[in-house]
Structure formats: C-alpha cells, structure tokens
Write a structure and sequence with these properties.
By secondary structure, the protein is an alpha/beta fold. Helices cover about 25% and strands about 20% of the residues. It contains eight helices and twelve strands.
Amino acid sequence: MSILPRRNVLLSSLLLGTAHIISHQQEAIAAPSIDDVDDSTKTKSSFEAKPFHSAAYTLKEYTNSIVASRDTNISPKEVYDTISSTYLQEAYDAAIKSNTIPRALDVGAGAGVSTEVLYKLGYHEIDALDWSGTAWTRYVIDDPMGYCPPSVKFYELDDERYLDQWRAANSNSNNDGDGGDKHLFDIIIFNFAVNESKAQQFAKELLNKQHGRLLAPINTSTDYWLKQTYQVLDSDGKVLWSAVDVGAWSVQFQPDVTQDTCSGVWCAPFNGFEKKR
C-alpha cells in the first residue's frame, strides 16, 4: 500500500481455491489455525501442495506504484526487495533452527503481493490483514490465477481492531510461560506509514522474543505523513537497520488510516474507513 515512485534493486532477490475473507472480529478469533492441526499432519504436502498466489504479483515494477483498488496500490518493487533482505531472512532461519513453523504478519496486505513475497521466503503460516478487502478479493479470490492455501488467512480489519482481537484470543497463552510463543510472529511487515510508537508497540508485543523482526516505514516525525524511514526493529524495539532511500526510491507510503492526523484521499471520510470508537 505505498504511493510514490523511484528506482533500483536492493539486497537479495527472492528465495527460492479461493479464500474466505474474515470480515467480522468474532470470526477472526475463531478462524482455524494450523496450530490446531495435529503435528503429524504439518507436512510439506499438507501446506504446500498449491502455493499462495496473487494475480497482482507480476504487476510490480521498479520505481512505480500500481493502482490495485481505490484504497490500495501495489508498491514499487524496491519494497518487495526490502522484504527479501538478509535482516528478515535471519528470522526465518532462526525459526527453522528452533523447529517451529515460521509465522508472518502482513499488515496492509492489499492485493496480496507482499503476502506472496513472504510465502516465497518460506513463511507459509501468514496472517494478512487490510481494512479494505477489495484488492485481495480481486487478485486472490476472484481472479482464476489467484489461490490462498488454508495456512494463509486474510482479515478484513485495520491493524488496531486486529490487535484487539489478537490480545483477546492470546492473553492467556502469552502469560503461561509454556508454549506462549506459538502465537507470536517471527516477522511483521507494515505496508503503510506508521508513527514510531505503533511500530514499537507491535514489535514488543507481537514479535517472537528471541529472533523476531519487524519492517515498517516509520514517519521521520510523528504524524508527518510525507516522508518515512524504512526500519527493521527487533522485539525490544531496537533499530537494526534503517534507510531513507531504497536504491533510487525515496521511501514514502500511504498514511495510517487509523490515525486522527491522517488526511487526504487515502483517509476518512474520503475512503469510507470508519475509525474504531
């Protein structure tokens, strides 16, 4: 869900039926997870027989964002190269070494391009969310080329409502000291601009405490939506990497629709978004 153009390649290249959109918060909690499946069934064949695919995946290009819906752009390809960087690959490697299934949270998933990048990196258990499901429906559900396996779930929720439901569903498991990490994420990706406080909150609360990584375009000043710095944070909120420019692309994304300071065509009331009360 980013906006503005520019150009070049970053770091490493990518490794290497239709889905139900969860649109109600109660349903989001109740959605089945592969954590609920017996360990003996967690095999390559059961979760990778047919990989996730968005028909928008091939539309991405360097320097330019592509309109996917009224509310969503396909980001410049520099964004997806960044997701494939070494810093984020380390989280996957650590999860594999600890014999756990790598989990990813894709915030502002839009048309599902970032979701496919994560899937190709090996993150096959993904929660993807966006307050608008229009682009996801078009490119993942309705397009005959699109496919979403059961281990990838889309939530038609903004990040604040998703966080409320995640807390309600996992409050006990996160405090029991035994197996509490299974609901945490190895990697979190934000595909829209956020204030530093939100990035810190998600990193400290939702990331795996040993090796989790969060990638977000963070406003250079609080509530200043015209310029961001790409940052990778660990679970303590410590900045491990940052960049104002990625190749020749100057980092700038759509603003966070949940914030009162969000203004313009990407924000309420122009886009139909209704803030949490």
